[in-house]
Amino acid sequence: MYQKKIWCPFCSSPKIFENLDIPAKKTGSPDSLKHENKIEYKRYICQGCEREFDNNPIFQIIEALFVKLSHSKCLFFYLRSQLEELKNEIPASCNQDASKLLTGSKIVFKDLFENPTDPFSQVFLAGDFRLIGGSDHVKAIKNLVAWNSAKFLSQSYEQFETYLKDVASKTLNINKKYLDSIKKSDYKNYKKSSLSSNDDNDWRMFVGYVLKNSTGILKFLKQVYPEIKKAEKQNYRNIDLEEWLEVFSEVRHAVTHSDQFLKADRVRSWPHSKKKILASYFSGDYNDENGSLLHITDHILYDDLKLIAEYSFLVYKSWSIAEGFEWEYFEKKHN
């Protein structure tokens, strides 16, 4: 969950004060009353960097996501570096004994038949690492790096879904008229008192109950903010982001439930464009008969983390412009 405390988006300083010398302004697009929301527009000045910014209510939501994605990238990079260093310590001859590298790693266990009050309790050591050759050790390290890469990628999907849920709940909370974009039959059995709530958490529960997942949430957001759908189809990557997310969802399912194996019956009916996304963005060598074994390399992970950030920024920018808030708070750097 994101923090609600305000800080400077430029230098992260909490030392800010409200700028009262500005004319009153209604948030929302001047072109449509549909986007008139209940948030009072405010501007702040940072005492640290002396820059001004407004109270964009979803800046902190996307900032929280970016921190999580960057943290995941940092942890994976560190983990991979440490494992690569360990792999380099293995003797040049891959058939040599690698047990010295594994000192202190044996499993220590006790006999469950022992009397718990026995003062002469014993423990057993299990795992004869002399049976593991250097080549087995190298293979195990490579598999561990790949496994962690896939797990970090799966986790990033869930973080993106949480971000969408937070944006959607904030959207519904600031303007109840946006409920018109959801079929009444989808929430006719939902507690009516919650539909007048001003608590973001109540609306997060509503979003989870009615819109359910990233697909349902994005469908709602695209109805309210059509620019999202436009950029999904027309973007510098020249891919359909809606298809990419559908493939990503299946990849996450395969990582979580099928040991990175994407079953053929879940892929067979896909159009060529989605199979191409699978191969390009998730290293899936698809076979109509057997399915697809994923190979999530570090480069694949980093690029998908980047694309999650880009997709999130697309939602954030479209939302901010439509609701009348500033969005240019992130550091710019030329390629």
Structure description:
Helix content is 46%, strand content 8%. The chain contains eight helices and eight strands. The strands form three sheets. It has a three-stranded antiparallel β-sheet, with no helix packed on it. A three-stranded antiparallel β-sheet has the order 6-8-7. The two termini are 32 Å apart. Residues 26-34 have low confidence and may be disordered.
Approximate shape: globular
% residues in beta strands: 5-15%
Low-confidence stretches: 26-34
Instruction: Please tell me how large the radius of gyration is.
Output: 26 Å
Please list the strands of the largest sheet in the order they lie side by side: 1-2-3
Average pLDDT for all residues: 83
Helix content percent band: 40-55%
Oligomeric state, counting identical vs distinct chains? single chain
Number of domains as seen in the coordinates? 1
* Biggest beta-sheet profile: 3 strands, antiparallel
Strand segment tally: 8
Rounded to the nearest angstrom, the distance between the terminal CA atoms is: 32 Å
Give the helix tally.
8
Following the backbone from N to C, one meets helices and strands in this order, namely EEEHEEHHHHHEHEEH
Quickly give the structural class: mainly alpha
Question: What is the topological layout?
Answer:
Layout: E1 16-18, E2 43-46, E3 52-54, H1 59-88, E4 107-109, E5 124-126, H2 134-174, H3 200-210, H4 214-224, H5 227-233, H6 241-257, E6 261-262, H7 272-282, E7 284-287, E8 291-294, H8 298-323
Antiparallel strand pairs: 1-2, 2-3, 4-5, 6-8, 7-8
